[in-house]
Amino acid sequence: MALSKLLAASLILSFLLLQLSVDAADKSEVPTVEGAVPGPKIDCKGKCDFRCSKSSHPNLCKRSCNTCCQRCNCVPPGTSGNYETCPCYYAQTTHGGKRKCP
User: What domain range includes position 13?
Assistant: First the structure.
C-alpha cells in the first residue's frame, strides 16, 4: 500500500515538473538576428520590389532581399548601397563569406 502511494506521488511530481519545463520553454524568447530593427514588421515585398527594380537578375535579387528583410526587418533605401542604414542587412553572408543581401 505504501509503495503504491509513493509511486502515485512520484508520478504526479514528475508530471508537474514536466509541465513546468514545457511552460518555461514556451515563454523563452525567440532569438533574433543581431542588429535587427525592432518594432512592427515592414512590407518586405514592396521594399524588395523597389530595391531590385534595376537588377539584372530581379528574381534572384527579390528572393535574397526578402530573406534578409524577414531576418532584419529592414531594407536599405534606394536600388543599391546605403547599407549603413541597415547594418543587419549588410552583415548577412553566405556560407562562402559573400554578402547575401543585394
Answer: 1-30
